[in-house]
């Protein structure tokens, strides 16, 4: 499957049934796994053998689906988490602890911003936020001796800035730390950050991967390329003995390819228990089977809607990375030549008030705190997901007070455009 095209991996990656086995990924709906001897189980506890003993740490259904996402991203190891938030937290906390520091793009998902700037800060981890368009010098200036990672989003939700992955990877590697990229909006169908130098990829699988608004979930994938041992003094958690596992050294025992995910599973999943339900992993896999087909349609619809909005007089601005003339068009053409995502951002004349007014007249698009599923939905972040931010923080996150996030589903694009048009008519007639 390694050399297969992305479409084939979406359908058949991860799980390859043997003779007489179920064609579809089985749901291992079991908290526990049975062993003949205590010795057999002891080997699992000591990480000397691989296998399952308790679903709080690992479950076969989850691992089969994680293996598919691993193949899609071109990584060496992956794990599912209960949510995208858990994936972002684990990815960073796996290599950072109290007293450490992370450089992050300021243009990230509101929930991630809150996790970093408020909750993880309370745990003693400091973040410096840099504009995604900062110069190499500005980026370099954000690093400190205790910096352990760099973080960014391929396509930021909801600002729709496109990360210059190579620039961020260069800076991270020059300082001996990995680049973590949240690839939720692009999905591996449209961009594979490892091909541009990223080391770890995270996903909210709640979005396009599931694609039907059915199951919350997350995923972490390791490229297997970051050499932890070459920077051992920075990453004691991976490069010195773990007393809770009889002194094993993850980077020695599991190498570059497996250390990161093994540690995140053995320590963080054990202690925080943010496991994805096997039932949800099964639903996620159904979504993955059509991801390549759906992404194409999401992107076609979004381009049609963005092109219409660009011509519409009552719209003051529109942002869509694949729209010619967009601020990120060139960057998107480089990193996302086959399409970006289904989400378009725009503002209508009259600002914040007009935005709320317009949205209530939409009939096909519904107001939902969600993006990236089969049904078109929209949101006004300044009064919802980003409401805890002040105007300066909103501006840094690339979210203006009038921004409407419009997530194009899989409907007919002419119907979507007609819906927007009639809502504008109704709002402006009031
Ligand atoms: C939704 C989202 C998250 C958080 O994911 P949940 O599954 O809602 O926890 C993280 N990053 C991005 C880019 C998102 O869109």
Can you describe what's shown?
- The structure is a single chain.
- The protein has helices at residues 6-12, 38-45, 60-73, 84-93, 110-122, 136-141, 165-174, 187-190, 236-239, 250-253, 255-272, 278-288, 291-311, 329-335, 351-360, 391-396, 413-429, and strands at 77-81, 101-105, 126-130, 147-153, 179-182, 200-204, 218-222, 315-319, 343-348, 366-367, 377-379, 404-407.
- The protein has 430 residues and is of the alpha/beta class.
- The chain has two domains: 6-286, Aspartate Aminotransferase, domain 2, CATH 3.40.640.10; 293-429, Aspartate Aminotransferase, domain 1, CATH 3.90.1150.10.
- The chain has a seven-stranded mixed sheet, with helices on both faces. A five-stranded mixed sheet has the order 8-9-12-11-10.
- Helix 5 links the parallel strand 2 and strand 3 (126-130).
- Helix 13 packs parallel to helix 17 (413-429).
- The model has no long low-confidence stretch (mean pLDDT 95).
- It binds pyridoxal-5'-phosphate.
- Pyridoxal-5'-phosphate binds next to helix 4 and helix 5.
- Pyridoxal-5'-phosphate is lined by residues 83-85, 88, 109, 111-112, 153, 157, 182, 184-185, 204, 206-207, 216, 218.
CATH class of the largest domain: Alpha Beta
Share of helical residues: 25-40%
Structural class: alpha/beta
Binned strand content: 5-15%
Low-confidence stretches: none
What small-molecule ligands were found? pyridoxal-5'-phosphate
Question: What's the end-to-end separation, in Å?
Answer: 57 Å
User: Main beta sheet: strand number and arrangement?
Assistant: 7 strands, mixed
Q: What is the tally of helical segments?
A: 17
Number of strands: 12
The CATH topology of the largest domain is Aspartate Aminotransferase, domain 2
């Amino acid at each position: 499957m390694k050399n297969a095209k992305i479409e084939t991996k979406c359908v058949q990656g991860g799980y390859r049934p043997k003779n007489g086995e179920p064609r579809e990924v089985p749901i291992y709906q079991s908290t526990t796994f049975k062993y003949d001897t205590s010795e057999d189980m002891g080997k699992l506890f000591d990480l000397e053998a691989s296998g399952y003993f308790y679903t709080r740490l690992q479950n076969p259904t989850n691992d089969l689906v994680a293996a598919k996402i691993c193949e899609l991203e071109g990584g060496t190891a992956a794990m599912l988490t209960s949510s995208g938030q858990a994936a972002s937290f684990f990815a960073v906390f796996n290599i950072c602890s109290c007293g450490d520091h992370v450089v992050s793009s300021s243009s990230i998902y509101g929930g991630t911003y809150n996790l970093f700037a408020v909750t993880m800060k309370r745990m003693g981890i400091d973040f410096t936020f840099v504009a995604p368009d900062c110069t190499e010098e500005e980026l370099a200036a954000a690093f400190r001796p205790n910096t352990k990672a760099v973080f960014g989003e391929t396509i930021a939700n909801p600002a729709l800035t496109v990360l210059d992955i190579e620039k961020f990877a260069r800076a991270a590697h020059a300082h001996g730390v990995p680049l973590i990229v949240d690839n939720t909006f692009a999905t591996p169908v449209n961009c594979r950050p490892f091909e541009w130098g990223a080391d770890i990829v995270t996903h909210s699988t709640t979005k396009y991967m599931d694609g039907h608004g059915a199951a919350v979930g997350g995923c972490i994938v390791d490229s297997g390329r970051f050499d932890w041992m070459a920077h051992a003094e920075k990453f004691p958690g991976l490069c010195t003995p773990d007393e809770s596992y009889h002194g094993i050294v993850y980077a020695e025992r599991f190498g570059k390819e497996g250390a990161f995910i093994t540690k995140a599973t053995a320590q963080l999943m054990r202690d925080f228990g943010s496991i994805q339900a096997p039932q949800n992993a099964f639903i996620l896999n159904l979504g993955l089977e059509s991801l390549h087909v759906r992404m194409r349609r999401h992107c076609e619809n979004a381009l049609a809607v963005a092109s219409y909005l660009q011509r519409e007089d009552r719209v003051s601005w529109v942002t869509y990375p694949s729209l010619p003339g967009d601020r990120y068009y060139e960057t998107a053409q480089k990193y996302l030549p086959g399409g970006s995502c289904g989400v378009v951002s725009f503002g209508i004349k009259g600002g914040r008030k007009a935005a709320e007014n317009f949205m209530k007249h939409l009939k096909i698009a519904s107001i939902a705190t969600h993006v990236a599923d089969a049904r078109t939905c929209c949101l006004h972040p300044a009064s919802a997901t980003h409401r805890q931010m002040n105007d300066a923080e909103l501006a840094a996150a690339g979210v203006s007070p009038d921004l409407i996030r419009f997530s194009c589903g899989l409907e007919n694009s002419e119907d979507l455009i007609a819906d927007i048009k009639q809502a504008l008519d109704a709002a402006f007639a009031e």
